[in-house]
Amino acid sequence: MIQKAQFVISNTNPGNCPKPDRAEVAFIGRSNVGKSSLINRITGKSDLAKTSQKPGKTQLINHFMINDRWYLVDLPGYGFAKVNVKVKQGWESMISTYLTKRENLCGVFVLIDSRLEPQKIDLEFLLWCGTEGVPAALVFTKADKQSKTKTDQNIRKFLKKTQEIFEEIPDYFITSAENGQGKEELTAFIEELVQEYESGEII
Ligand code: GTP
Ligand code: MG
Fold first, then answer.
1. I need a labelling partner for 16 at 20 to 30 A (CA). Which of 7, 91, 144, 188 fits?
2. CA 36 to ligand 2 center in whole angstroms
């Protein structure tokens, strides 16, 4: 359970992130998929991470300290078309450096919009995670926006696509930042990762 959540620092340079002295998990996904909103929902602090209706809100690597014990990281979204090429390349290299070099990173949650059919950009990103050995799990967002039938249909299709990338279906969660669906399951899973990391099971 998350009892305490505090903002620590924002960075553009992965090298300036806090000392990697504790477990860390990060949220990533397309711009506007709901990363910051879900962080606010699972921490119970509605204004912890900045959210916006306009894509491209989060532009930095944002560290939050949870329960004085582990870091939760909010990242900028990928696939945001409305920035110039230089800015885009800057973000991409910042994110890829962070994801591949951050030594205490024990889980990366790739957020997927549950309203949509499988998107190429998400599948490409997952493929990249697979080749780089980035430990990815899936979080389907905005489940409140359509019927459960539609959500399940989209998720089934997406998972089928992931089988072309991974041998096993990745861990996945169905969530809504609006009504809190999936919050307990996701938090419990993160806490398990943190415990495993602390007990040295993940190297
Ligand atoms: P960037 O920082 O721009 O990459 O976006 P983000 O992924 O952090 O998205 P953000 O949390 O800012 O949310 C984008 C928009 O989607 C906001 O208008 C949110 O209110 C809305 N939103 C996020 N999650 C949900 C959800 O679960 N349900 C509904 N109905 N709306 C959501
Ligand atoms: Mg954001």
1. 188
2. 4
